[in-house]
Amino acid sequence: MGFKAEARGICRVQDGVKKDCTLAQSRELLGTLYPKNEGQIQRLVQLALKHKEKLYPFSTGKNWGYGSGLPVLPASWVVDLSGMQKIKVDAATGLATLEPGVTQRMLHQFLHKQDLPYLCPTTGGGPHVSILGNALERGFGLTPYTDHFYALSNLRAVLANGELYTSALSRRGFECIAKSHKWGIGPYMEGAFAQGNLGIVTRACVRLRKRSVERGAFVLKVSPQRMEQALQFSQHCLHDLEGVVTGINLMNPARTQGMSRAQAKKQQWTLLGRYAGVSGTRCLLRRYFKSCRLTPYVIPYSWTQCVEKYRPWLEKMPWGKEMAMLLKGFAILEGVPNDVAAPLVYQYQQYNPKLPMDVERDQLGLMWCAPLMPWDAKLILKLTHKVETILMRYRFSPMITLTALQPTEVCATIPIVFDKRTHAETAAACYEDILNVLMQHKCFPYRMPISQMSLLQDAGTRHCPLYHPLKQAIDPEDLLAGGRYE
Predict the structure, then answer these.
(1) N vs C: which end of the chain shows fewer Cβ within 10 Å?
(2) Quick one: angle between helices 320-333 and 307-314, nearest 10?
């Protein structure tokens, strides 16, 4: 009996097909496996070892712009974990135990239904992306805790050799401590599962942040000539208001216009930050801003509740579409997932807001480049200008956001939005040109699309001298997620 026939006795199996993704890359899949629990995953891995079949797991397959649910290497079975959707939240501590199929919308609805005062860790990826999938890719957002992998603890995973991984504290029966204390006892091993391929994570604990008494956003329009000052202002905020200001986005004009579909008369950057704290935080923030040479508008979260009510009126105003977009974006800062970023990727098709955003269904071309830069205002602006120039040379919209979560580095998020039917090769060449410029200035993306992971080998930048022998010991046949960040 072959692998497929035996796998049908474990879970639902879909026959192989050729699939593509937003990168305009395609793979011939041997088939798709749909396990519903950890036991089924363990049996599938053991079966794959027996038949020497390659597996590639994904949470929900919504890793848009990086490869979605496609494997790095061809001739693989994909393991779709979207059916694993269990949620358990400790009301006292905000520690949530989640399976990989739990999306932002599912967790937000669970918290709302249970009337729990905690924030869902949202991103601009939309309501239907996996929380664990994003965290294991080291994703981030402006809702605390901003570093999503940092908020993870007590992982469980089926290793590539079929064994079950649990943390040292959990194995000894100290489950509560294993959830609350991320680092455990002894060497910290769970970091190997972030952007790794040692096993299939079946559940993890996510630390949720309680909603603050006062919370909201601050907004400022910045001319290109004052951007160096705006970067210095942002760094000072993160230094001086640590714990109050959770993060700041700086969006260039093309980015805000791409999201709002509005043409601005003035080409200005938009500074958007999030704040949260005890009663009086808003007044504290205003006093602090008065002492600075830049003074943003401080907007409480309650204002966002007026968005839908006044949207028709807002959109008639010269600045209305952009303001409506920003107010909708504030909801994400409050842990309410939505599709505010959807218009950004629908450059070549009409976006229907009545349907959930699905760039795979709509056959959109999207590739993300997300480089990390040291906090040097002159270098950041120099690289921003170079990247904008490259994008325009290839006739792509030069959309860039600079995200600052700490005063030591900035992460730029750069979407290359293209028509897959005509500009796939051009988009790949544009990405490589951008990457070459970044590397010349000692900057590099914090995550990679599947089409570019071979560059890690070309650059001779294996994860770590320890990782390769660890992979060889656990998965000598390289049956699990081969080529992923290797």
Answers:
(1) N
(2) 160
- Cβ–Cβ < 8 Å for 50, 170: no
Q: What phi and psi values does residue 205 have, to the nearest 5 degrees? A: -95, 135
Q: Which two three-digit tokens encode residue 292?
A: 């600075």
Are 71 and 30 in contact, with CB atoms under 8 Å apart?
A: no
CATH 3.30.565.10 fits 87-207, yes or no: no
pLDDT in tens, 303-362: 766 655 666 666 665 566 677 677 778 888 889 998 888 788 887 777 777 777 778 778
- Assess contact for 140 and 194: CB atoms under 8 A: no
Query: Whole-angstrom Cα distance, residue 434 to residue 385?
Result: 11
Distance CA 1, CA 201 (A): 28
- Calculate what percentage of the chain has a pLDDT beyond 70: 93
Domain 214-450 fold is Vanillyl-alcohol Oxidase; Chain A, domain 3 (3.40.462)
pLDDT value, residue 318: 57
100 three-state secondary structure? coil
Q: Tell me the one-letter amino acid at 329.
A: G
**Residue 252, Cβ density class (10 Å: 0-12 exposed, 13-18 middle, ≥19 buried):** buried
E-assigned strand segments in 35-125 = 55-58, 77-80, 87-89, 95-98
Give, as one character, the DSSP assignment of residue 144: S
CA nearest to 149, candidates 187, 188, 115: 188
Q: Which residues contact 205 (CB under 8 A, 6 or more apart)?
A: 95, 96, 97, 98, 152, 153, 154, 178, 179
pLDDT of residue 458: 56
Per-residue pLDDT reduced to its tens digit, 355-401: 777 787 788 899 999 999 999 999 999 999 999 999 999 999 999 99
Ranges of each domain in the chain: 87-207, 214-450
